[in-house]
Design a protein that fits this description.
Structural class: mainly alpha
Largest sheet: none
Shape: globular
Number of strands: 0
Helix content: over 70%
Distance between the termini: 42 Å
Length: about 90
Amino acid sequence: MVLPVIQEKPNMEMRTKIINDINKERSRQNYLHPRKLPLSMRFVTIMEESGEVAEALQDKNMDAVYRELIEMASCAVRMAEEVLEK
């Protein structure tokens, strides 16, 4: 049985805020940690950030959940950038 795909209209204002926040965090990362790391270490950083998301969820702190998700997404973007540079 194939389930139908439901097309939801994205909330573009919310998505724009999220992407802008990720871009700001990427700039902050470059400023604080400018050196390149092996991709395996970039992946470890993403996993560490995912642990912080889990902690914030356990604490039911949605502001911290959002902040940690932005940091995790930014780490993933940084890793993807480095993959494309190789």
